[in-house]
Amino acid sequence: MIPLDLVPLSADEAAHEVRVVEAVHAALAAAGGWLSFAAYMDLVLYAPGLGYYAAGAHKLGAGGDFVTAPELSPVFARCLATQCAQVLAGLGGGEILEIGAGSGALAADVLQALAGSAALPVRYRILETSPDLRARQAARLAALPDGLAGRVEWLDAVPPTPFEGVILANEVLDALPVERFRVLAEGVEELGVAATAAGFALVARPASHELTRAVAELGVALPAGYVSEACLRLGAWLESVTAPLARGAALFIDYGFARRAYYAPDRDGGTFACFHRHRRHEDPFVNVGLQDLTAWVDFTRVAEAALACGLEIGGYTTQANFLLGTGFERHLGAYRATLDAQSEPLVARRAMQLVLPPGMGERFKAVALVRDYDGPLAGFSLRDFTATL
Questions:
Q1: DSSP helix, strand, coil percent of the chain (3-state; round to 5)
Q2: Is the distance from CB of 101 to CB of 68 less than 8 angstroms?
Q3: 174: which residues sit within 8 A by CB, 6+ positions away?
Q4: Measured between alpha carbons, how far is 362 from 360 in angstroms, rounded to an integer?
Q5: What are the residues facing 281 on neighbouring strands?
Q6: pLDDT tens-place string over residues 111-158
Q7: Nearest alpha-carbon partner for 284 in 35, 32, 69, 11
Q8: Among the four given CATH numbers 3.30.460.80, 3.30.70.100, 2.60.40.1220, 3.40.50.12710, the one describing domain 1-389
Q9: Is residue 164 classed as helix, strand or coil in its secondary structure?
Q10: What's the pLDDT score for residue 2?
């Protein structure tokens, strides 16, 4: 469904869309006229110089396509810093690796919070593949004091050598390409992308062996006609980004569900969505290369992938429980004390969106994946829902 108020493209944006569409046509021709949906997402999100995350589109914040928790309030980062400090203390020090650092707001606020508590990491590395976002991050972090800015390093790939510490990834898992499928009485079909006279469209084919097996292994009875998605790349991706973590914790925060809720009967159609200028819709074939394509996270799949690559589940809970467990009320109170009377109410309301159920509090979940770390994890001390995975 396309919203009636979808923001028109500028002339430059329209010209960029033409280039991305041409690239999709070329990929379709090379692939015999049909692309898996994950391959389509990969191209329009990540193709160098063309994809949504690889080109210069303004993505984050009020003037972008969506707002993430670090832009909503610095209280989010201060809570994560509390969890990082606890893990680093348990390890006797270490590093932080952030995957996909967005605007750089989380890195900047985490470093300042850790400096205030004398718990700074040896270095703060950022794995960022988007040149546009890397430039924004560098500009933002350059404003930090030298003792903080000098600890930041950017990486093009996962670290080649082992390290101890914390991996942070906020709203990263939802951007991994997914395969879309439909259940039939006689099996499963895969919904891929083909070109038609009217433009790109979803076209069904018999599902690949891998996708058929993945749907069968969900362990959920799905009725004929049921449509959803599955992130088949998650296991290999997770193993790659966590392989260098010799000791410590990887913290992932994203919107999603445990599997039985994800594939519930009333969630027919899946969770896939597109975002452009804060408008949500479900058509991946408009604003090609200029909108975010995303799907919610199956946290049961995350847990399975973690166990398969030698990690343990340190905890799984809602974002609200995680933030409250890491001192949300204390951090919010300290932040509000620095504000003037005019701005304080608005800032407080924005911060409360992080924990309230109608906001991010229940829709977003936090999971800790640990290796050779059995110390406390404050973010999962209030309620831990690992048993539901």
A1: 40, 25, 40
A2: no
A3: 254, 255, 256, 294, 295, 296, 297
A4: 6
A5: 274
A6: 999 999 999 999 999 999 888 889 999 999 999 999 999 999 999 999
A7: 35
A8: 3.40.50.12710
A9: strand
A10: 53
Instruction: Name, in order, each residue with C-beta under 8 angstroms of 83's C-beta and a sequence gap of 6 or more.
Output: 166, 251, 322, 326, 377, 378, 379
Cα–Cα distance for residue pair 150/140, rounded to 1 Å:
13
User: What values do phi and psi take at 25, rounded to 5?
Assistant: -60, -40
Q: What is the pLDDT of residue 66?
A: 66
- pLDDT of the residue at 7: 85
Contact 35, 316 (CB under 8 A): no
CB 258 within 8 A of CB 177: no
Rounded to whole angstroms, how far apart are CA atoms 27 and 360? 37
List the chain residues with pLDDT less than 50: 60-62
Cα torsion 129, 130, 135, 136 to 10°: value is -120
DSSP alpha helix (H) spans, 268-383:
299-308, 319-325, 328-336, 344-352
What are the two backbone dihedrals, phi and then psi, of residue 317, each rounded to the nearest 5 degrees? -155, 180
Position 65 scores a pLDDT of 56
Q: What is the pLDDT of residue 62?
A: 46
Token pair 């804060």 in the structure block, residue? 278
Which pLDDT does position 60 carry in this prediction? 45
Helix, coil or strand: residue 79: helix
In angstroms, the CA 348 to CA 352 distance is: 6
The predicted structure's pLDDT at residue 56: 61
CA dist 222 and 218 (Å) reads 9
Among 260, 175, 263, smallest CA distance to 227 is for: 263
Q: How many CA atoms lie within 13 A of 182 on its CB side?
A: 11
